[in-house]
# Entry
Amino acid sequence: MKLSGLQVKNFRNIKHLELSPDHGLTVFSGENAQGKTNILESIFVLATGSSFRTNTDQDMINYDAQYYGLNSRHIYNDRKIDQNITYSAIDGKTRLINSKRANQIHPDRLRVVLFTPDDLFLVKGSPSKRRYFLDFLLKQLSNDYYHHMESYTKILKKRNLLLRKAQANSKAFAITNDLFIDSASLVIINRINMVNLLDEIAVSIHDKLSGGGELKLRYALSFPVESGKINLDIIKESMANKMKQINEQETKRQTTLLGPHRDDINLYLDNRLARQYASQGQQRNIAVSLKLAEIFAMKKVQGFYPVMLLDEVLSELDEKRQLRLMEYLNNTGFQSFLTTVRSDKLFDNTRSVYLVKQGQLLRKE
# Structure
């Protein structure tokens, strides 16, 4: 999948911008607050329908305008796909793919992997960061998983509501509990399969970027499984058994104490838990490897690379890791867009480098 054209209008500080990007790496360079991240954000909104910086579309409208408009063209399975998103406070948001109304799980939509400085804390950050990383990838890969998560979230809310109302012994709770176990098990088995795939992919990427250290990924359940193997039935049975044991505890605390919302991913470097024993540089190298593994997981499952967006990550890496990452991006098979405040010899081997100033693109020769 390649982005071949982008038009941005009245988005943040960008009044009008047009870009026909290179199929490899494109760098947006410039000082802070000039609009580099805004360009990446516009691509992300086209792909997902939402922003990675705000929950409010109104925040993304240029202060001199009443609406924003985003248009793109990408190549997918040798077909040209046109996307359009417009938003105004009066008319709301409209999303079109090839001139027809489309939702955020349309099969022809643009796919992206986003890498921000926050992702460099994937290893030592909270479990919610790692769960989000996994769920975002799975939702892009599978509409079924998107629906599984939607269903799970609704049932979890209902289960917690019944616990707060002290109805843990009611018939309604028993029915909800069975639905919860069924829904949670589907989410978990999909996550486990994806972590196993990422583990397989990330090892070689990490080796190239770090030059040493064995990386391992393991899915960490919030409940014990006695069996030596994992499948859907075993997960359901283990969950049901543990829920019986903690019924009194959940009733007292009025919340659900196990399930996908409490699971985690354990990351190991040389068989030691990375968040406890790896150095800051090693942790950040693992995070870079995980985000790149996301790209290759999509390629393996769906047969195409998504577009990669990297926002100001170079400034968080030491010089050696910067050079390794740039070499990797300049010689890979997927398209990527990178923002940076740097403008030096680090980009000598990059064909497309643009200076961004006051929301405008200036091509650097």
User: Anything to note?
Assistant: The radius of gyration is 22 Å.
